[in-house]
Each structure stands twice: as C-alpha cells, then as structure tokens.
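Dear colleagues,

I hope this message finds you well. In preparation for our joint manuscript, I am sending the Beta-phosphoglucomutase (Paenibacillus woosongensis) sequence together with its predicted structure, so that both groups work from identical material. I would be grateful if you could confirm receipt.
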Amino acid sequence: MSIFKAAIFDLDGVLVDTAKYHYFAWKRLADTLNITFTEEDNERLKGVNRMKCLDIILEIGGVSLGAEVKLELAEKKNNWYREYIHNMDKSGLLAGAEEYIHKLKSQGVLTAIGSASKNAKAILTRTGIIEAFDVIVDGNMVQNAKPDPEVFVKCANLLNITSDKCVVFEDSQAGIAAAKAAGMKTVGIGSEEILCEADFIFTNMLEVELPLF
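The corresponding structure tokens are as follows:
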C-alpha cells in the first residue's frame, strides 16, 4: 500500500495528448511573426503559463512588443488551441492514464489536477474523466506559473493534505521544480534526460506501478 495520500497530476502530456495542439498553435503564431519555432524550442514552454510562453517565443525571435499587443496574440493562440481541442474525446487520453487514476481511487488516494492550462476543465469534460478528481486547480485559479509551487500548494490546501503526503506527476522540468519547491514527491512522465530531477521517471503512465513510495 502506498504511503502517499494524494496524487496531483499535470494535465497536458501526462494524462491527455494535448501537448501537440499547444505546439501547433504556438508555431502558427510564431509563423505569423516570422519567428522560427521548433519542437526543441517547445520544450521550454511545458508547464509554463500562456503569457510566459509568449515571452519565450518573442525572446527566441528577438521581438519586443507592447503589453496590449501581447494580450491580443495570446488570445489568438488560445482561440486556435481551442479549435484544435474542440473535437477531443476519450481517445485523447494517454495510454494507462485513466486506469491508473481508478487504481489510486480504489486504494483511497485523493486525486487532483494541478495545471497551468485555462482549458483544463473543458478538456477533462471532453475526455470523460472530470469526475475522477477531487480537486481541479487550473490556470484561472493561480497567479504564478511553474516553477513557482503555487498550483500544487493550492491543490494540497484544497485537499486538506500536507505537502509531504502528496506526489506530483509531471512531464516538464518546471513542473518537477514546482513540486519539489512545494515539498512534494515527484514522478516524471517522459524523457529521463529532461526529467532527471524527479524521484521516479517513467516513459508513460502504463509503466507506473504501485506502490511508489
């Protein structure tokens, strides 16, 4: 039996296959600005909020824009992203994700979403797993982006669980850093090279087995 009391999941790239849609939307925006934006560049955007992502892309292109224009561009990107995810359904879940969450629930582990996405609830609804989570904290509920620990601290507070009893599942360096700053255990989902600071690393959710800690 696992000793952790709560599991907090990032959404994009951990439970659902939406990371590609973010990349498509950001690349589409970068193209309109004549900025070369690659999949390698996109790694810097994982786990980061929308405005910070835009700042990174502008930095890559050496472009400086005013606050009002940046807000318009960020909204344009989000509209494109929402177009891409509009037809998502259960097939958008990553392999093993739903099964693992239900396994945790059957063992009495609390579950939460801690995501920078402002579309998290819509995605969870479309993929049919929103009811599996006790708490959902998304980009509409926090001020500070990962690696700031705010999103995970808020999850723990809403779950009424201390940080040391939480484990965070993340696919980004920023997310792992945020979880560690919150005093939580970490499981990296993805590349060992990128997620080397995590306590455990698995290629995907199919590989994750209980107990972890």
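For the figure legend, we might mention the following. The longest helix spans residues 67-85. The domain at 6-17+90-207 is CATH 3.40.50.1000 (Rossmann fold).

With kind regards,
E.M.
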